[in-house]
Specification:
Structural class of chain B: mainly alpha
Low-confidence stretches of chain B: 250-269
Largest sheet of chain A: 6 strands, mixed
CATH class of one domain in chain B: Mainly Alpha
Largest sheet of chain B: none
CATH topology of one domain in chain B: MetI-like fold
Radius of gyration of chain A: 18 Å
Shape of chain B: flat
Number of strands of chain A: 10
Strand content of chain B: under 5%
Mean pLDDT of chain A: 92
Number of helices of chain B: 8
Oligomer: heterodimer
Strand order of the largest sheet of chain A: 6-7-8-3-9-10
Helix content of chain B: over 70%
Largest interface: A-B, 60 and 49 residues
Structural class of chain A: alpha/beta
Order of helices and strands of chain B: HHHHHHHH
Mean pLDDT of chain B: 85
Number of helices of chain A: 9
């Protein structure tokens, strides 16, 4: 079979008669840091939610190591455990401490023993610099801290791919940096990531592959050097001109 | 006047003190047990009504869920829409007709009636409580691979419980007072004692006075305990930074130096990540 971790084939999604995604095709390989850029409403987040099966697609296939995960043959929970997701609004469990947030999935889904789950949680909380806050609850820490905990929670499941749905869009400007730093260090560790973002500097400097979406279709994709300096597509050029000059 | 009242209460208490106390304890036991069972019923109904069901699910599942929802709807509407005093009579005297058995045990009938009645109210509270939880919470749970039941058990229901704690308290206090209608089938609760004693010695006001004070004590104490419980469920209002744990780096460090892979590598070799 194919060597791709994720392969999206002819994915379409419609809410009623409104087509949000039209015939999306792309692949994610091990170690890729793929960023998806594009204007608001272009379907970027919906695409990510479809990949994590939080939305049911209208047509198309999502292949995970060559196996279609959309037809019910593969347990969606088992698949989601291997494809982590970081949300724009963090979605930390508000009834648990920071440490419990990073342990519960390991214990209940991967059946890791408590002590090992704790060690693993602390390992990743250290990675994102949040280990001192293990006893805090999500409503007691700042947005940037929440997002770093959310990243640690996703990492603690040791996923093969990590999806980021606009991880910095809900943050105050001064907190964006700390989250991007963590993401950069993950990229350096060869974590496979698929990132929907408005942070053009991140897309340009960190990612290995850039996908530009507009009106539910992929207009152009390629290495960042190409997309950011010499895009083929007229719409890509206009979009980048608009966001880079602002 | 007051002297008369106090001496009347004194004589009532001397003669019937234990009867009043038994009444209080019966009321207390019935309302606590029935509220707890009612909560269980309510949570059960609330969970059943919020099982997700999309157009992609098999027909059998959809039909079954539809059926369950209709039954639960009927249950809630019937038991919320009729007086509890009537429900007690209905069940107590109805059983022999339908099942050929009669509950001669007043306790069993009383607990069933009050629990089922409370459950009908709680079902709606729980449903509302579950709906009020941010959908992001269950998305977060799904994203780490939890199935519906795990999501409910570990993430949604604990938060629901915290949110509907005032409702549970409400129901409990209502039950303390409303179990008094169970005298209709002969349950000897606190109020039934008043009827019996005042009927025997014709001291209506002194007895009623004691009843008022007794019920107030019961409900005030319950309010106090519920407040404590709510505080406990809300968790600590502060937290301590952890810096003594050997696995934890010193506090306040978040940004990694550009060239370091992970600062943790130098701290402990116990656990190595599966990746990197």
């Amino acid at each position: 079979m194919s060597g791709h971790i994720l392969e999206i084939r002819h994915l379409s999604k419609a809410f009623g008669s409104h087509a949000v995604l039209k015939d999306i095709d792309f692949t994610v390989d091990k170690g890729d840091v793929t960023t998806i850029i594009g204007a608001s409403g272009s379907g970027k987040s919906t695409l990510l939610r479809c990949i994590n099966l939080l939305e049911t697609l209208t047509t198309g296939e999502i292949l995970f190591h060559g196996q279609d995960v959309t037809k019910g043959k593969i347990n969606p929970s088992a698949y989601r455990a291997k494809v982590g997701m970081v949300f724009q609004s963090f979605n930390l469990f508000s009834n648990m401490t920071v440490l419990a947030n990073c342990m519960i999935g390991q214990q209940k889904v991967s059946h890791v023993k408590k002590e090992e789950a704790r060690q693993r949680a602390l390992y990743y909380l250290n990675k994102v610099g949040m280990a001192p806050y293990i006893n805090a609850r999500p409503d007691q820490i700042s947005g940037g801290q929440k997002q770093r905990v959310a990243i640690a929670r996703a990492l603690a499941m040791e996923p093969e791919v990590l999806l980021f749905d606009e991880p910095t869009s809900a943050l105050d400007p001064e907190m964006v940096g700390e989250v991007l730093d963590v993401m950069k260090s993950l990229a350096k560790d060869n974590m496979t990531m698929l990132v929907v973002t408005h942070e053009m500097a991140f897309a340009r400097d960190v990612s290995t592959h850039v996908v530009y979406m507009a009106d539910g279709v992929i207009e152009e994709e390629g290495p960042p050097a190409k997309i950011f300096t010499n895009p083929d597509n007229q719409r890509t050029r206009e979009f980048l001109k608009r966001v880079l000059n602002s | 006047m007051f002297a008369q009242l106090i001496s009347d209460i004194g004589s009532l208490w001397a003669k019937y003190g234990t009867v009043y106390l038994t009444g209080i304890s019966n009321t207390l036991i019935l309302s606590v047990v029935a509220t707890l069972i009612g909560c269980v019923i309510g949570f059960f109904c609330g969970i059943l009504q919020t099982i997700p069901c999309g157009p992609a699910d098999p027909f059998l599942k959809k039909a079954l869920l539809k059926f369950i929802r209709i039954i639960l709807r009927a249950y809630v509407e019937v038991f919320r829409g009729t007086p509890m005093i009537l429900q007690a009579v209905f069940i107590y005297y109805g059983m022999p007709y339908f099942f050929g058995v009669s509950f001669r045990d007043i306790w069993t009938v009383s607990i069933i009636v009050v629990s089922v009645n409370t459950g009908a109210y709680m079902a709606e509270s729980v449903r509302g409580g579950i709906m009020s939880i941010d959908p992001g919470q269950s998305e977060g749970a799904k994203a780490v691979g939890m199935n519906h039941w795990q999501t409910m058990l570990y993430v949604i229901l604990p938060q629901t419980l915290r949110n509907i704690m005032p409702q549970i308290g409400n129901n409990y206090i209502i039950n303390v007072k409303d179990t008094s209608v169970m005298f209709i089938i002969g349950f000897s609760d606190f109020f039934a004692v008043h009827k019996m004693v005042s009927g025997a010695v014709f001291k209506y006001f002194p007895s009623a006075f004691m009843e008022m004070v007794g019920y107030l004590c019961l409900t005030l104490f319950a309010s106090f305990l519920l407040r404590k419980l709510e505080k406990k469920l809300a968790g600590k209002s502060d937290y301590e930074l952890v810096s003594t744990d050997s696995l934890v780096m010193s506090a306040g460090t978040y940004s990694l130096p550009e060239d370091a892979v992970s600062p943790f590598d130098e701290i402990s070799k116990d656990y190595k990540g599966g990746k990197s």
